[in-house]
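Bench notes, afternoon.
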Amino acid sequence: MKPTPSSKLSSLPPYLFVRLHALKLQAQAAGHDIIDLGQGSPDLPSPPNVVAALKRAIDQPWTHRYPQTQGQPQLRVAIADWYQRRFGVTLDPESEVLPLVGSKEGLAHLFMALLEPGQGVLVPNPCYPVHYNGVILAGGKAHLMPLREKLGFKPDLGAIPAAEAEGSKVLLLNYPNNPTGAVLEDLSLLERALVFSREHGCLIAYDNAYSELCFDGYKAPSILQLRGAKEHAVEFHSLSKTYSMAGWRIGFAVGNANAIAQLGKFKGFLDYGIPGFIQQAAIEALTGPQDCVAAAAQAYQRRRDVLIKALAAIGWKVPVPRATMYLWARLPERAGKMGSLEFAERLILEHGLVMTPGVGFGPHGEGFVRISLIADDRELEQAAQRVGRFLKKL
């Protein structure tokens, strides 16, 4: 017997980073030394105090038992306190905070919990893949909002067709933005989103995973800072980037109590939550010294500057992002009519350099590549040199 996939799964291509990993293995087999600037997986170590807290907690037998879906009360309080300190936002730990097995899973689960078959979600594009794929796997319909360079990679909410605006249950926004690195210079987009939510009755899902990786004095906001936002918005955050804990799989959702309750109910049927010892370590991350967060942002800012300078030296001028751990670069002129997928594949197979093709983030990402700042200065300079050799051959 050969089981057939559902129509929802069949409608999706292979996951982008699985495809890149396969190409990387092929390049390694051909003898290339790989520099991987693909997936946004932090190479910086998790904070030592957090690792120490995990080691202490794992020696406690109670942390090995089934966890509760809603998370430990101390963790929910730590999340609420962190939001108060960071954004000045007051949250009820009992009803407005929900720990997650990573924000990626949480976003996908939100769509599964809320959407009826065929119901719409307004999704920016290009986007983090789960913003689109999660809608499709939930049986919903993704209505793409183009993020155009001339608009600072921000959606034009006024250009959304009336039928899509009225028929969508969720409006998704993500700033600082993955993959473009765009930031909000002010709160005007968030204010317009709240007006849009009131007019059309949709929930705002705000992905704020990169709020702490900001540069040049920029400080990212929370949508929950706006008056009345908790009536219309739920915000997702992650310890993956802020504390270099990507492999630990822990994040959280906060905000609208009804959305939190529905997401929690869904998760109760599907998973057991986060292992107790990881929750204890997360409490230490959120309540302990925060110098590691500033140090991480400084490291990515230095890497940004090193790579942009090295790319400029080979004739590839790339915009300077004020947040995230990525460069979002239009393909160099020497690439001609080459698409982003071909550009990325050839870089991997011919030079052992992994970048992510923009089309992997959706049709409006074509013509770009995303470059992750997940290597040291020396490797970043080598990466630019490999691009230079590749472009000369063209």
